Amino acid sequence: MLKILTFLGTGKYDPVTDFIDDYKTDHPSFPVALVERYLRDNPKKSMEVTFFLTPEVKSHENWLELTKPHLESMDVKYRVVEITSNITPIDLVKKMLEVVDEGDEVVLDTTHSFRSIPITVSIISLYLREAKNVNVRMLYGLFDRKSETTTTLDLTNVIEMADWLYAARLFKEYGYSKPLGELVEKRNRSFYTKENIKERPKKLNNLQGTLRNLSTALRLGSIRSIREYVRKLIVLFDKPHNDLMNELETFAPELYPLTPSMIERYKKIDSGKKTVELDEDELNAERELLKFYLETEDLGMALRLAREYLVNVTLYKQNPKENVLDRKVRESVIFPEEPLIREARNHVAHFGFNEDNLPSQEKIAERLKGIAEKAPDELFKECERAVSGSVKAVLSPLGTSKGALFTILKHFTPDVLVVVTSKQAAENLPEILEKAGFDGKHHVMLVEDPFTGVDEVEKVVNGARRYLEEDNVNEVVINLTGGTSLLGYMVERIREGIRHGRKITTVLAVDRRPYEEQKANPYVVGEILELPRR
């Protein structure tokens, strides 16, 4: 339904000629002229007029003689909402919301409103649109005393300016481009749907597509897409004699003054390349992107990026020529991965559908800010100091044969040993440790049923991971020799959960002697076969 929201005052209303769009009429009460104009295009049943009047106006001739009788003669539905002369904008909005329904078309006439209303009308209009999903047209009747005419000014562009400002800020501050893209697309389309327009924009549509793609990349967390589309955005505005800026000034002047600061924001996360290449520009751009996510309070994205950023800092300082996107290369990078970040990242990656508890948001944000505030060189030195006290562990299954674990311990002399075994086989462990001369810390993960105890897998995997974390292990030798198939599977599962941020070496212990000889004398150092990384 069409809803006209209007006001009356107590000033003297003389007969004037009113011009509203292409409609002309003579009437001293501008709201009456406005109703006449809209009755031309709208049936009476689909239109309602609401007057916001003070008690003084309700008893004044401007209402009782110049307005109300004419509305009744036109048989137009109307209502009166009483207001005070000192009503606040928010109270006025509340009263307007009471008379506006979802999806209405609203004409807001401010001709005879309080002087403060036109100033705040853009805010009022935004409230109406957001709360009730309505389109608002704002009109003002400008009276010319010399000619005794009132010309109607369409001030809806004031509302549109607020739209552009809000949309540009959303994109600049949060990376959300949908509102801005829709405005650009709507403005571009308007010049192609109207006839008799001599000049039309040619570059504006490219901006809308680039904004949409960059926004999607930022929300997905795809670094290659971010690199591609942020570069495209920068290039659009970096060209000499910039055609796009000229078009914005001509066809979207609301966006034109906001664009430079918006582009400067995104230049910070631009590495200068459309692809991911590991260099100082890339690291600085990733650091700024991490700050961007923190500033927009997108902790999920910040968590995902922070770990990859730490890997890239370490990789660049150690071997910058490696393929930064190669999974094997990235998994081989050793850095002190903190339980807080890892647990939070895993929790978020699974949308909370796991048993990991999410650390407090304050602790997550504090640690991520600490990473973002440090320059790459400082971060690398911090990682080096943490890794310098390297703790090496052996993770191994243990069956009833003693020789494989003995060989592993003699070859690698670890600081920590984590054994996955059965109750029966665990009885041999003290003897194996004594023969190998191992005096480090050891942990035993007992499996009740080493053959079919699949319901014990998660308990063993989580327990072994916890031991490795508590002992600050950053290098793990994983032995796959010995024990049942289920024990071997459990060790494989543990490896999958600990491989990030640690040096992982997977081996087999080989004893070429006959079985009977191995059984009679298990304590002979065999060979080590190192398996390739997957």
Can you put this structure into words, describing what you see?
The structure is a single chain. This protein is α/β, with parallel strands linked by helices and 534 residues long. The model has no long low-confidence stretch (mean pLDDT 90). The chain folds into four domains: 2-154, SSO1389-like (Rossmann fold); 157-275, no CATH class; 292-387, no CATH class; 389-530, 3-Layer(aba) Sandwich (Rossmann fold). The protein has helices at 30-39, 55-58, 61-64, 68-73, 89-99, 116-132, 156-174, 178-193, 204-220, 223-238, 243-251, 259-267, 280-295, 299-318, 327-331, 339-349, 361-373, 376-388, 403-412, 423-426, 429-436, 457-470, 485-498, 515-520; strands at 2-7, 17-20, 23-26, 47-53, 77-82, 105-109, 135-144, 149-154, 392-398, 416-422, 441-447, 475-479, 503-510, 527-530. It is elongated, with a radius of gyration of 37 Å. The longest helix has 20 residues, at 299-318. The chain has 24 helices and 14 strands. The two termini are 66 Å apart. The strands form two sheets. The protein has an eight-stranded mixed beta sheet with strand order 3-2-8-7-6-1-4-5, with helices on both faces. It has a six-stranded mixed beta sheet with strand order 11-10-9-12-13-14, sandwiched between helices.
